Every structure is written in C-alpha cells, then in structure tokens.
Amino acid sequence: MDLFDEEVFVFTPKGEVKELVKGSTVLDFAYSVHSKLGDTCIGAKVNGKWVTIKYELKNGDRLEILTGPGQHPTLDWLKVVKTTKAKNRIRHWIKTNTNIAETVEKGRQLLSARLKRFNISLEAVPEEAVKKVLDLNTLKEMDDLLAGIGSGEFSDVKIANILRRFAGEIAKPEQKTAPAEKRILKGEIVVQGEYSDIPYKFAKCCSPVPGDEIKGVVTRKGISIHRSNCENIDLNRISTPLVAVSWNESVSSYYTCRMKVQAKSRDGIVNDLVSTVTNNEAYLISVNTTGTGTAMLEVELAVRVKGQKHINDLTSSLKKVKGVAEIERAG
Asked: Which domains does the chain have, with CATH numbers?
C-alpha cells in the first residue's frame, strides 16, 4: 500500500506546501488554511484559472482562494469535501447558524424505513450499536448522522446495514465458553476482533513499518494503523475504539519512513546523504532542508524501507557521513 498514492501536494500563493488526502477539493484546501476562509469560499484560481469549490486538487497545483461576503456553508458542501476537518467545521457552522430540523427528520424517516425492511425499529437499536456507527463516521451525535442521511452525505442503505450488523452482534447471547477471537489477515496486517472486516491504512503522522509495535484506531475511513507510541493515539485525546492489530510475518513490501538528520553545514552534505540512502537499497521520496546558510543544517528524508531493521542499518550508515551529528525518526 503506497501512502503517496493517497496524498496530494499543492501550493499556497506564497509557495508553501499543503498536504491533503487524495480527492480533496478547493473547499478542503480553504478549510485547511482557516475555517473562516472555508466558510466564505466561492472558488479559487488554480494555476491562474478560475475553478469552483468542487475542483479536485492535483499534485503541484498552486491555489489562490476566492471568497464572497454573502457565502456560507450548506449541507450540500458535505458532499464536496473529503477531509474530516472540513466536514466537522461545516457541520458546526450549520448547527450553529441554521435550523436543520427538517433535514434531520428526513434522515430519520429514510433510516427508519430502511431498518423496517429488516423488522428493526430505529428506537429499538441498542445505544452501543449507534455509538459504534457514530465512532466509525467520526460523528458526535445521532442528529449529525440523521442530517447526513437526509442531505445525501450518507447512504441510508449502508448505515442501516451497519446498524443491523452491530445490533445483531450485541444481541447475541453470551457463550458459556469464550469463542476464539476472530483474526483476519489483511495483506501486511492481522486485524483481531469485531472490526476485522473494515479496511485499513497506515497513519501518516507516525509511518509505522514492520518491526514497530502497532495499534489500530477506528476512523470514518477504516482502521488507521499507528505506532504504539504515537502521540496522536493518546487515550486521553481520542474517543474512537482501539483495535488489536499485528504484522503478518511474511510482509515483504516497502514502507514510508521519515528521518530527521542534524548535520554541520558543508558543500555536498545533502548529496552524500542521498547517496547513502540509495547505497542502502532504500528508495528516496523527498528531501527537505532547513537552516541553509547557518552552521547547522536539518535535513528531513522521506524514504521507503522494508522494516525496522532496514531503518537501523540505514541510520548506522548515515551516522558515518561526515558532519552528521544526530539522526532521529520523525513522527
């Protein structure tokens, strides 16, 4: 699974790089800069050409957001954006500034009708099942889910099927003897427990590789695989379920790793670091340097490696490059 197939890199008018998930739109970009910019966005100039808020971003695009004083979020915007940050801001604005009771009621009727086909009453669905669906879609309240169904953001068919499955699991009588925990092999990862049928992806914040201790976090898009020491899965900061996951013993792919190198500034230092990466059979993705013109240089390398042992070997080789003072794994 190639993380860089799931990202898009674009530029602000000042040349600053913004990294968003693949499929992000002009509106996602606007909200990534500032919530008020997103709230009033009417479109953008992309590479000098005017486009709508629905324009899907491509690698290398340079954006200038256009705003209008009378513009504001609508429920339809939830179908336009891809990122959780944008969706949460839009929902917050709508709940704060409009009356969405009709949309919530429409969603309630659609979901109730769909559940009725399974001889299930919406009111009878266990709270635990509802909470699982809300967690899966990174929502806080049932009204958010119903409004999403009423506006077309969520499929009533899909939500009804998930609620039906979760409700059925909760309603099952306890076994006298505990059944063996379900373990599903999904490529590089073994997923255990009730979330074993949900797809996964590797978190960009910590970029886990084989050999790392890992945990899974249930998100709207599936299971996000993090390193166990990732600060973003601090139990005090997240409310979504954690999933027991482990590496498949036979993994053989390459994985993204980011490394920060502190080195004394000298001519050719970056070239020497790049050569060391390639000589260690790792694949270089990107190089970013800060501190140019000063005594010390920080070089961030994004590389593709086979696992933790590969990282250790590469780190040992990089430490031998003249001028290198310190190396640490980023994220």
From this structure: 3-96 (3.10.20.30), 101-171 (no CATH), 183-247 (no CATH), 255-329 (3.30.70.260)
